[in-house]
Amino acid sequence: MSNTGCRKRRDVRIAIDGPAGAGKSTLARRLARELGIKYIDTGAMYRALTLKALQEGIDPSNEDMVAALAETVSIDLKRPLEDGGEQLVFLDGTDVTSLIRSPAVNRNVSLVAMHPRVREAMVEAQRRLASGSVVMEGRDIGTKVLPEAEVKIFLTADFAERVRRRCRELASRGYVPDVHEVEAEVAMRDRIDSERETDPLRPAEDSFLLDSSGMTADEVAGAVLGLCEERIGCSTGSSARWRA
Ligand code: DC
User: Atom 14 in ligand 1: which residue has the minimum CA distance?
Assistant: First the structure.
């Protein structure tokens, strides 16, 4: 994707990390659209691999099997159909953009993502995808994938709000969310993602911590765009410009 609307003087990398339901995707997509740079959702890659394991009847806890699958599977991320839209995900050539958000994938993805060999393969692929200017979201972007990112945001929100957002997201995809199940799933993912040995979820030392509880998406985007302006001198809008 080119940096349309932005006279780029140098590449800019923006890392967005945080727990499930904190609002990372909404923020990352908005930033990518406003700044005219590409957007990569790394969670989608772990989700696509999880879907493949489930389709093949592979136990998500079996590191050998899942790591072998990671070597053979083809996961392609394509730019959203419209600016600010959802990134499209293809698994072995099939569009799985919606399927990777199913409750079954939600329940199993943290188990797949905890295996060191799986992470090694994913981090390598993610670094390749991050060439040029990028907004990348995940759990270990600021600490592992792009430790040299110019702007690092660690986005959180309180548990009840994250559960509400997850339920809304599931409903918007045609599922009927059970709030207790969603609570259990978010709590489990929080625990596995932050307690795993390899690249656990934690803020990078130089990250900007933002608690989005009680904030609207516009307020969150406004705060982060302000930070981008301060840190890297990039303003927004159709006439966005990078300062030298
Ligand atoms: O952001 P998400 O909910 O789509 O991520 C799905 C899972 O993938 C998440 O529970 C942990 C894992 N993940 C990860 O370990 N590292 C990343 N960079 C992105 C996601």
Answer: 139
Spatial distance between the Cα atoms of 50 and 243, rounded to a whole number of angstroms: 41
* Domain-embedded: residue 229: no
Region class of 18: left (phi > 0), else alpha (psi between -120 and 50), else beta: left
Q: Evaluate whether residue 227 is within a structural domain.
A: no
pLDDT at 242: 39
113 CA to centre of ligand 1 in angstroms = 7
* Top mean-pLDDT range of 8-17, 140-149, 170-179: 140-149
Residue span of the structural domain in which 192 resides: 13-221
Give the nearest ligand 1 atom to 189 CA: 10
Q: Is residue 240 part of a domain?
A: no
Q: What is the pTM of this model?
A: 0.91
Number of domains making up the chain: 1
Amino acid symbol at 141: I
CB 168 within 8 A of CB 31: no
**Tokens, residue 106:** 């939600």
